[in-house]
Amino acid sequence: MLELIGTRTNSTVGGKGAASMSARIKGAGASAAQTAPPETTGDYEVTEQIGHLIRRAHQRASAVFQETLSDPSLTPMQFAALMKLADGPLSQNHLGRLTAMDPATVQGVIRRLEERGLIDRRADERDRRRTLLTLSAEGRALAEALVPSAEAVSRKTLAPLSAAEQATLIRLLKRLA
Predict the structure, then answer these.
(1) What is the pTM of this model?
(2) pLDDT of the chain along its 177 residues, tens only?
(3) Where does residue 136 rank: exposed (0-12), middle (13-18), buried (19+ CB within 10 A)?
(4) What is the phi/psi pair of residue 10, to 5°?
(5) 3-class secondary-structure state, position 123
(6) Domain with CATH 1.10.10.10 in the chain
(7) 47-176: what CATH class?
């Protein structure tokens, strides 16, 4: 039985450190330690890997979003923020967590939505140190108007799948997310 052990050796390949792992036959003494053969791609096909397939599916979903949403100037991240704010006031930090945006990204999204007059800021009545984001009247009207085209985005994105496959995909993606 082959057992990988934690010995790493670094060498320079193309100016970058490359690591190799030592291997030894389990149960054999240290004298049986061998260096594993160089890594090869073998049967590995990048286009069959989960990361590649998710990226391709994301590209397709993004294209459908841009083609279908009734406000083509709205990005998917801006749309997500707008729709979460339609549920009620949120702090910038909480909005970022709900929409899976890092602080720098959510800050830019909020700035662009503010520039369009779609959101307002107000002090939190319970904690004056905190600022809450709310939809402006224009933002609320836009969020409501976008729902039918947003539903069409989901339908078009999932159209190649049967209803059962759609439900399975959504369930599995929720587990991965």
Answers:
(1) 0.72
(2) 433 433 333 333 334 433 333 333 344 444 444 555 556 668 999 999 999 999 999 999 999 999 999 999 999 999 999 999 999 999 999 999 999 999 999 999 999 999 999 999 999 989 888 999 999 999 999 999 999 999 999 999 999 999 999 999 999 999 999
(3) middle
(4) -105, 140
(5) strand
(6) 47-176
(7) mainly alpha
